[in-house]
Design a protein that fits this description.
By secondary structure, the protein is mainly α. The strands form 2 sheets. The protein has a 6-stranded parallel β-sheet, sandwiched between helices.
Length: about 850
């Protein structure tokens, strides 16, 4: 037996045809799995024989004609121009045998007579489907072909039914017969096929990719080539032609093999043959044999579908109810010895089963999915679990878990569940571990009264809570006090955290508690060195471990309150770089925090891009009270860039009224005031800054340099011709900046500049102005130092502070200080005014000198 691919087999047949022309007749049986190219090989031989002057007779056996005596012989006789078969049915068995013998003899004499005139090629495709009489007739010819100019070629499927085995036996023992086993294409064979394609074609080095995807099946390879949208594409992409070809191959299988193909598609990768036997209720060993057949077809490799589209095509052959039933059976079969996630996949695809273990599997899989940043999978599992719950308590708890997963995907979807969950809590259907996270969702969506009521319920039973629940509850109290300074005021003092707690080392063991620790210390002490050091340790401890959002934001807030904006910006950059695999909500929150930092650093293009990213990843309706942060950052950026319409568009986004009782509301008010200031609405601007003043005073939060209002209010007062009030506010600001806490250099410089505009002597004890400080109208660019010129020119060309720092090999803080002094000396408000002013730079003072 010769095993060869299609190219080598064609060479063999052409050689045998050449011998037959010289009177050395031969018979060839070509076998192979469906799709290996038997039909293509037979057609190629027919073309070659015809072009060489031979006579060609062809027939195709069919399963539908198996019971038709001499059906194949009739096709060949008709092709030769002779009557097909004996006339009428025989009267008895003996007469029937006699008629068959006469027909065999007549056919034999007919073929030999034709071969005397011209070489004769006889081909029969799908010979395994022949009727018994035709098979006997052809075997008679096979045994006597040696002395005639005849080449007889039969094509038989490798997994032919037992009725075809007589052919194989004859071709094995007869020296004038050749048995050719068509095998799969090698990578070299696939490369030859690709090289023979007309026009643009995949690169030769991509042949192994095409060979692996097709499994060496010429039929599947051609389907993949037909599906190409780009003729030169190097990687195969299965499409409609591939899908139809897979279905054709599956239709060639017997029922056990076809059922195995369907079961393998249901179970997925690494399905054990014994599992398939049990799943499909097949006799032992059946699936193992069928899996070898599927491998031979090129569809699978060691029990795995080579291409996902092949598995999908196998699944598509099943009726929906049959597919669901198989998935449920698979879940029952696998739940004792396979991972929960694999079992859950079948429960999701087939619907839950009645067994008690099913709900636990779905919930466990959902929790694991959330830990691995796959909330979509968690949602899918929990929705199935929720629909399957009949017990009210279990249903309520699953709904609470479902809400947590939904928040990771779309916080807006959570709001619809909140009233029902609050009722579940009041009815005692939720456990403490579900009620405590519910508080966070209520705070996010601007429902502080409902959250406060839950706190009251939990406060009453706190002594009976497990230690981990106590820690979670304490964390929620800190965030309530931080986010809602009035409604949460009672929790600013009522806390288990104290100054001594900061001395312990934070780590990634319980980052939520560590974040609450930092936030509590920030509220009680302000941004002291100890608090900043703790925030730094917290970020260092969690950044490599998929940092939770809340503690990360707590640490970043500490840097912003301390005006350590450069350090906050560095951390934001790192966190965003590492966040690609995080959920859209997490990435949006980090982007919004970065936008807030960059807008205060003066990197307005970066701030705008990240604010837009945050609002794209999570739509405005999903942000709850936090919407004020990305909107404020974008307003500040648009205002600084002179894009009034861009800023005004931000104010058309609806915001919840309760936001103005929160810290994000302060960000929003300050940004709105600065926008009003930029467009000359000084009364409106002053109203927003005074609102910031009143809220911060009422909340006892006048410790945040990032939310300072005095300097901007003073600027509005100057424009409203109230210099005395402006001087008073600027003096207060300078006193706060010189109180030893480090302050904000930019605010200090801005205060000094505004005092210069007022023509006023500075308050005693304040720093002197930088050399060359201009008059209220501003001096010329020649008054700038060389360093200030370089920075100002790069800023006028659109470079961000970070880009300028990188080009000049200085820190971003140094760039900010140079720009501040340049603005003051030039008498301009920002970058937008720099190009016109710097046009007066003398030729002898180049900025890059």
């Amino acid at each position: 037996m010769l095993t060869a691919d299609g190219r080598r087999a064609r060479e063999v047949l052409e050689d045998l045809f050449a011998r037959a022309r010289e009177g050395q007749g031969r018979a060839v049986l070509v076998t192979g799995a469906p799709g290996m190219g038997k039909t293509t090989l037979v057609h190629a031989l027919q073309d070659h024989a015809l072009s060489s002057g031979a006579r060609v007779l062809t027939a195709i056996a069919s399963r539908a004609e198996r019971e038709l005596p001499m059906g194949v012989i009739g096709q060949l006789a008709a092709a030769a121009g002779e009557p097909a078969s004996p006339e009428g049915p025989p009267a008895d068995a003996d007469a029937g045998r006699g008629a068959t013998l006469r027909a065999i003899d007549a056919f034999h004499r007919l073929m030999h007579g034709l071969a005397e005139h011209d070489p004769l090629v006889i081909t029969v495709d799908d010979a395994h489907e022949m009727d018994a009489a035709s098979r006997h007739c052809l075997l008679y010819l096979v045994r006597r072909v040696g002395a005639a100019r005849i080449l007889l070629v039969l094509g038989e499927r490798a997994d032919a039914c037992p009725a075809g085995s007589a052919l194989t036996s004859e071709f094995v023992r007869n020296p004038r017969c050749v048995l050719v086993q068509l095998g799969r294409l090698s990578a070299t064979g696939t490369e030859s096929v690709l090289a023979a394609l007309p026009g643009p074609r995949p690169a030769p080095e991509s042949a192994p990719l095409w060979q692996r995807a097709s499994g060496g099946s010429p039929l599947l390879l051609q389907a993949l080539l037909d599906d190409r949208t780009d003729p030169s594409a190097s990687e195969p992409a299965a499409g409609e032609a591939f899908r139809l070809t897979v279905r054709h191959l599956l239709d060639q299988l017997d029922r056990p093999a076809a059922r195995t193909a369907h079961g393998l598609a249901v179970l997925g990768d690494d399905a054990a043959a014994s599992d398939l036997d049990r799943l499909l209720d097949l006799p032992g060993g059946t699936a193992a044999r069928a899996m070898l057949t599927l491998d031979a077809l090129g569809l699978t490799e060691e029990g795995r579908y080579r291409v996902a589209a092949a598995r999908a095509a196998a699944l598509a052959e099943l009726a929906p109810e049959e597919r669901a039933a198989l998935h449920r059976s698979a879940a029952r079969l696998l739940h004792r010895h396979r991972p929960a996630g694999e079992v859950a996949r079948h429960l999701v695809a087939g619907g839950p089963v009645d067994e008690s273990w099913a709900l636990a599997v779905l919930r466990d899989t959902a929790r694991q999915a959330l830990r691995t940043n796959d909330p979509e999978r968690a949602l899918t599992c929990l929705r199935v679990a929720h629909d399957a719950c009949s017990d009210p308590r279990e249903r309520a708890q699953v709904r609470a878990e479902l809400v947590q997963a939904e928040w990771e995907v779309d916080p807006a979807a959570v709001r619809a569940h909140l009233p029902g969950l609050v009722e579940d809590h009041r009815a005692g259907l939720l456990g403490h571990r579900q009620s405590i996270p519910l508080i966070a969702h209520l705070l996010w969506h601007g429902l502080p009264e409902e959250a406060d009521a839950l706190f009251a319920d939990l406060d009453a039973v706190e002594s009976r809570l497990p230690e981990d629940c106590k820690a979670q509850l304490e964390t929620m109290r800190v965030w309530f006090a931080h986010s809602y300074p009035v409604l949460g005021a009672r929790y600013r003092e009522h806390t288990l955290l104290d100054e001594a707690a900061l001395s312990r080392s934070v780590s990634a063991v319980d980052p939520q508690a560590d974040g609450a620790l930092v936030l509590h210390a920030l509220m009680s002490q302000g941004p002291t060195g100890t608090v900043l050091a703790t925030a730094e340790r917290l970020l260092q401890g969690v950044v490599l471990h998929d940092p939770p959002v809340a503690p990360t934001i707590a640490a970043l807030a500490t840097y912003m309150h301390a005006a350590r904006l450069d350090r906050a910006a560095d951390w934001c950059d790192l966190l965003l770089r590492e966040a690609d695999r995080r959920t859209p909500v997490v990435r949006a929150i980090l982007a919004a925090a970065s936008a807030a930092v960059e807008s205060r650093l003066g990197n307005f293009e970066v701030a705008r891009q990240r604010a837009d990213l945050a609002l794209t990843l999570v739509g405005p309706s999903s942000w709850g009270i936090a919407i004020g942060v990305p909107l404020a950052a974008k307003v500040l950026a648009c205002t600084a860039q002179g894009d009034r319409e861009g800023a005004a568009e931000c104010f058309r986004v609806p915001v919840p009224d309760v936001m103005f009782q929160t810290l994000p509301g302060l960000h929003y008010l300050q940004a709105r005031g600065r926008y009003h200031l930029s467009v000359g609405r000084y009364h409106a601007a002053l109203g927003d800054f005074h609102a910031c003043r009143d809220l911060m005073a009422a909340w006892d939060l006048d410790v945040s340099a990032s939310l300072s209002w005095r300097v901007y209010a003073a600027e509005a007062l100057i424009e409203l011709d109230s210099p005395a009030q402006a001087r008073e506010l600027l003096a207060e600001e300078l006193t706060r900046q010189d109180d030893g806490s480090g302050g904000n250099p930019w605010l200090k410089e801005r205060s000094l500049h505004l005092l210069d505009r007022l023509g006023n002597l500075r308050p005693a004890g304040t720093a002197t102005a930088a050399p060359g400080r201009g008059t209220p109208q501003g001096s010329g660019p020649e008054e700038l130092s060389k360093a200030e010129q370089r920075v100002a020119l790069l800023a006028s060309q659109g470079c961000t502070n970070r880009e300028i720092a990188a080009r000049l090999f200085v820190t971003a803080s140094t760039v900010e200080q140079h720009l501040t002094r340049a603005y003051q000396k030039l008498g301009v408000r920002g970058r937008a005014d720099l190009p016109a002013v710097l046009g007066r730079l003398p030729a002898g003072r180049p900025a890059d000198s």
